């Protein structure tokens, strides 16, 4: 698959230079337009497995990247990288997180926590027991109930906790009382 700079070079050779020499053909124009359309279709965005892979992604080839399970990043000249919202790219460029994929979905079967990254806004949590009922509380401290006071949730019920929490720094979300399999969805936005 050619890169965008390769296509631009080919267009210069096939179209621009021939126009100057008055030797361009409709076939030259059509072939190059087809190649451009194919590339636009094929390169709407580049998908990478994790934020570390953004360091190898060249903005000359795409201006939009999808990081699986994280969100969409756009190319930018503005840094520095902060490891949370801005990541280093190729040639001194940066990738800036612009759209989160929400919800963050995970499963647990014992007490535990997940970290809400800095610069995020937690808007809601959905808890879904998948094995048996559970008596659960959710907090920002171990064993805490700052987000949801202890409540019984029946197997098969979905409980939605609407709670706005702005994370200026990484903030743990603790789940206490977990005695069965739980599916948890965190609905998160950028600050």
Describe what this molecule looks like in 3D.
This protein has 191 residues and is of the alpha+beta class. The protein folds into three domains: 4-42, no CATH class; 46-99, no CATH class; 104-190, Jelly Rolls. It has helices spanning 4-20, 26-42; strands at 46-48, 64-67, 71-76, 86-88, 94-100, 104-108, 112-116, 120-129, 134-139, 148-153, 159-167, 171-176, 182-190. It has a five-stranded mixed beta sheet with strand order 1-2-3-5-4, with no helix packed on it. It has a four-stranded antiparallel beta sheet with strand order 6-13-8-11, with no helix packed on it. Strands 7-12-9-10 form a four-stranded antiparallel beta sheet, with no helix packed on it. The longest helix is centred in the N-terminal third of the chain and has 17 residues, at 4-20. The mean pLDDT is 83.
Give a short synopsis of this structure.
With 191 residues, the chain is an alpha+beta fold. It contains two helices and 13 strands, in the order ααβββββββββββββ. The chain folds into three domains: 4-42, no CATH class; 46-99, no CATH class; 104-190, Sandwich (Jelly Rolls).
**DSSP helix fraction:** 10-25%
CATH class of the largest domain: Mainly Beta
In percent, how much strand structure appears in the residues? 35-45%
Cα shape: elongated
Radius of gyration: 24 Å
CATH topology descriptor of the largest domain: Jelly Rolls
What is the β-strand count? 13
Average pLDDT, all residues: 83
Please, how many helices? 2
Number of domains: 3
Q: What is the rounded distance between the termini?
A: 37 Å
Order of helices and strands: HHEEEEEEEEEEEEE
Poorly predicted residue ranges: none
Lateral strand order in the biggest sheet: 1-2-3-5-4
SS-based structural class?
A: alpha+beta
The oligomerization state is: single chain
| Largest β sheet strand count, sense and barrel closure | 5 strands, mixed
What CATH architecture of the largest domain do you see? Sandwich
């Amino acid at each position: 698959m050619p890169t965008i700079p390769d296509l631009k070079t080919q267009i210069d050779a096939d179209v621009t230079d021939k126009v100057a020499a008055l030797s361009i053909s409709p076939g030259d124009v059509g072939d190059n337009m087809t190649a451009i359309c194919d590339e636009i279709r094929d390169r709407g965005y580049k998908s990478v497995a994790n934020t570390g892979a953004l360091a190898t992604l060249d903005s000359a080839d795409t201006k939009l990247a999808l990081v699986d399970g994280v969100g969409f990043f756009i190319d930018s000249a503005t840094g520095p990288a902060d490891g949370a919202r801005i990541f280093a790219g190729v040639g001194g460029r940066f990738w800036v997180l612009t759209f989160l994929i929400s919800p963050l979905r995970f499963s647990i079967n014992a007490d535990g926590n997940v970290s809400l990254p800095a610069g995020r806004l937690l808007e809601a949590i959905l808890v879904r027991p998948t094995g048996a009922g559970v008596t659960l509380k959710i907090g920002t401290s171990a064993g805490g109930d700052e987000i949801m006071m202890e409540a019984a949730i029946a197997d098969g019920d979905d409980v939605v906790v609407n709670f706005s929490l702005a994370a200026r720094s990484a903030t743990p979300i603790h789940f206490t009382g977990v005695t069965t399999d739980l599916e948890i969805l965190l609905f998160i936005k950028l600050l």
